[in-house]
Amino acid sequence: MGFAREHWRPLTGAAALHIGLLALLALAAWQWPRSQPPVQLAIEGVVVDAKDVPAARDRPRAATPPVTTPEPPPPEPVPQQVDDSLQTEQAAEAERLARERAELEQTQQREREAAEIRAAEAKAAEAKRSEQEEQRKRDALEAQRKAEAAEKQRKDLEAKRKQEAKAAADAKQQAAREAELRRSLAAEEEASEVARSGVVDEYRRMLIEAIERNWNRPPSARAGLECTLHVSQAPGGTVIDVRVGTCNGDQAVRESITNAVFRASPLPPPPDARAFERRLEIVFKPTE
Questions:
Q1: Coil, strand or helix: which one is 228?
Q2: Which of 46, 55, 67, 183 has the most CB within a 10 Å radius?
Q3: What is the pLDDT of residue 200?
Q4: What separation in angstroms does the CA of 261 have from each of 41, 127, 182, 205?
Q5: Checking DSSP bridges between strand 239-247 and strand 227-233, what pairing results, if any?
Q6: Burial of 284 (0-12, 13-18, 19+ CB in 10 A)
Q7: Which of 248, 250, 230 minimizes the C-alpha distance to 239?
Q8: Sorting pLDDT into bands at 50, 70 and 90, what band is 31?
Q9: Residue ranges in the chain assigned as alpha helix (H)
Q10: In this structure, what are the phi and psi dihedrals at residue 232, rounded to the nearest 5 degrees?
């Protein structure tokens, strides 16, 4: 059906030419000389009585010659001009059909070549797509590997920085502890030296005397009174806070001693500045 649609014009012309050739052949056959009818022979006869010819019975009969039908005349030859024209048309038709067949074969060959080219191009495109996909996968894996390596390097650097920072902090704390230990040892050594010199005992005695001078002894105070006082003072001897610890006196005695400490503020300075303490623990034992 596709071939008929593509070559309907040549096929229509070929059909018309064949129809014309058939018409010419029919016309030539119609004009062909007809066969001559057989010649009718005129035979005359006379009725004779047999007894009138006695001798006739005794004579042998002559053989009757066979009746033959004359053969028709040979057909007249077709004019040479009509034969040449028919051969020319047939040759032209054969040439046209051969040309169309060659063109059809060329068209089919071109279509096959085009199909092969398209198939080769499709195969090459598919191979290229596959190669691009493989390259994309390789690039993605390489990018992932680089990202993982960079992340590992970043984590290693971060861990190293933290380790160095921790080491520095530990070293700083160790240095601070050592410095504090040295200060403590120095302070202890100094306090021991001050204590050995008797300045601390003298300072405690001065504080107790100042508190006792400002103490209003309540009636409930009894002999042998002893109370531990925790005193906080600012530089210069100003009393900031007073708390009574163990004490064998009642509430009135406790309050009277607390008031005496605040009234003694500012407390007397120590004979040696090294004996000054901001937090004092004083054992208050008033004289009788």
A1: strand
A2: 183
A3: 87
A4: 196, 102, 34, 14
A5: antiparallel
A6: buried
A7: 230
A8: low
A9: 2-6, 8-30, 54-58, 80-197, 199-213, 251-263
A10: -110, 125
Spatial separation of the C-alpha atoms in residues 93 and 15, rounded to whole Å: 10
Give the tens place of pLDDT for each residue, 132-179.
Answer: 999 999 999 999 999 999 999 999 999 999 999 999 999 999 999 989
Residue spans of the domains in the chain: they are 198-284
Contact residues for 237 (Cβ-Cβ < 8 A; gap 6+): 265, 266, 267, 268, 269
pTM for the whole structure: 0.36
**Structural contact between residues 270 and 236, judged by C-beta atoms closer than 8 angstroms:** no
Cis peptide before 79 (omega within 30 of 0): no
- DSSP, collapsed to helix, strand or coil, labels residue 63 as coil
Query: What is the pLDDT averaged over residues 52-70?
Result: 51
Distance CA(10)–CA(5), nearest Å, equals 11
Is 198-284 a CATH 3.30.1150.10 domain?
A: yes
Which amino acid does the sequence have at 208?
I
Identity at 103, one-letter amino acid code: E
Gap between the Cα atoms of 180 and 174, Å rounded: 10
Sheet holding 239-247, edge to edge: 239-247, 227-233, 279-284
| Angle in degrees, CA 251, 257, 260, rounded to 5 | 140
d(CA 265, CA 240): 9
Chain centre distance of CA 104: 51
